[in-house]
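Researcher: Please predict.
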Amino acid sequence: MPFSSPRAGRRALLGVDLTAAGARPGAVGAHGAVAARAFDGERLARLVHRADRGLLDLVVLGDALLLHPGRRRVPGRLDAAVAAARVAPLVRTAALVAGVPHDQVEPGYLAGAVRGVQSAAGALAGWQLSGPGATGGGADLAEQGALGAGAVSRIAAPAVAAAVAAAGTAAPADIAAAAAAERAWADRAAAALDAVLAAWDAGEPGAVRRGGDGRFRVDHDGIRFAVRGRSASRGASGTAGADRPLVVVPVAGPAAEALAGRYADVARLASPDLESAAAARARVRAAAVAAGRPADAVRVLLDVDVALADDRDAALARLDLVRSVDRPDLGVSGAVVAGTGADLATVLADAVRDGAVDGFVVRPTAVEADLAALVDRTVPALQQAGAFRLRPGDEDEPTGRDEPRGRTVPAEGAWSAAPFALT
């Protein structure tokens, strides 16, 4: 895995957030308007499989994963750990990360659910905390929080040309209240992390399991799923922390930076440009050192909304369409790349080379088109530049796992017939 490779520090990490690949509320896609439709598990499985075969490092299913477009603006939510467990057998190299709210699920069961995803996968899995606001990906991208003034930025590949415009200022009382809320969130998250890490080390029960009919068994608990099942096993070495899943912490303020430095394997930044991202990365690494960890124990990745196409004009046109039709505040307090897949590779390679970040987590504006560009254009361009890992056997360090040669995603299956058996 790239997270444990001694050479990975010199290479870019690249992940994709597929939270928006759940239900489609109805917006715009690569070719125009997209009708609202309910959750399509087979489509999600194909996307995850493609991301894994494309050698992406992370595949994230956030806790905002939608089950259906919703009525009266109240969408149904699908437990990301359940969805991740279903697609986990398709994953061999990517780290499959599920967003599970730490304040809504008992720590032992949360730990077991994520451990169950890792047991079902051929690669490392992870848990993403819910952020202090509406973080976690996909459906709530417009709400990625700023504690004060916002800004709009476009990273125009291949050069990083940011056009920053002030979006207003917040009153001092509002800033103080937001900071206090973030500190309270960080305290609750730290307590949850301590409990979940202890459960991982102790092998607490609660992993996702299959029944005799091959279906996943869960206990339904409102619109959430409290996952029950077999015990989460200790690592092969039997020592605390052995083979733990990754911990992914969203970072949008000083309390989150300190939390990430203390606990995280991956910190996801919401920053408008690479300069502010570099400053945040330095603070996270300093927090790691203050917590007695190596500075590079935390990989700091920048969240980037992308619109990718075969030429830049088409990408910019789609970005403008997305902003005008569906997400007018796209880019507020966050970075945006509009261009070709090779353009994104240039921006990422330069950012990693300059020490601004360790990689990107891409949030597609059109899931199928942007994921195809990532796999077919961005990854090969990074590999040619020596800035990304190669497939095992192609003169790169081994991952210790065999590639799933000839493995395909079935055209139909339990997703469409009976995705979950409720007990």
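Model: DSSP finds ten helices and 19 strands in the chain.
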